[in-house]
């Protein structure tokens, strides 16, 4: 019996989603301790490079494939929004090194846990997309929206706490930028959810 070969677009999106999960798991583990920041930033850069390779594969395939399983724009937009998520995590990791931040922080940990959960929801949604189980994806897009709202709540709380308690202006600037980058990355996860919703609507 011949096993049907998986579509290259779906396979690459699945690989990308799986890499984002690995990166988000690793990110959450590392920010909880911040033991080896050089290794942390290097590994996150490796994950980001891996996702760039997947993005390149999708662009190459779009240029040479006549019939695609979804609208070309939908495939491209979904790829770039997923890439924004890994870019956001990598940019945050690099800031720990650039700013010499080595103290763990409860708010960064909470953002990291939200991003970890987002990554798992995205992964489940992308695997369902490959199986053409479009309506089942909605459960995960709803959850991604909910997680992004949690990110907003953490953002309000940490900024309030920051201005109330941190007296050193340099430390305040560093922390504030990392919080904002983390919150923007949760926004990118919601962008993936919105893109998936758009695909569900146009294909069901």
- Radius of gyration, whole Å: 18 Å
* Number of domain modules: 1
What is the name of the CATH topology? Methane Monooxygenase Hydroxylase, Chain G, domain 1
Shape: globular
Largest sheet: none
The total beta strand count reads 0
Rounded mean pLDDT is 95
Helix content: over 70%
Q: What is the CATH C-level name?
A: Mainly Alpha
CATH homologous superfamily placement: Phosphate transport system protein phou homolog 2, domain 2
Q: What class would the helix/strand composition place it in?
A: mainly alpha
Poorly predicted tracts of residues: none
Kindly estimate the percentage of residues that lie in beta strands according to DSSP: under 5%
Q: Helix and strand string, N-terminal first?
A: HHHHHH
Number of helices in the DSSP assignment: 6
* Termini separation: 31 Å
CATH architectural type: Up-down Bundle
Structure description:
This protein has one domain (8-203): Phosphate transport system protein phou homolog 2, domain 2 (Methane Monooxygenase Hydroxylase, Chain G, domain 1). The chain is 84% helix and 0% strand. It has helices at 8-31, 37-64, 72-98, 106-130, 134-165, 169-203. Helix 4 runs parallel beside helix 6 and helix 5 packs antiparallel against helix 6 (169-203). The chain is globular, with a radius of gyration of 18 Å.
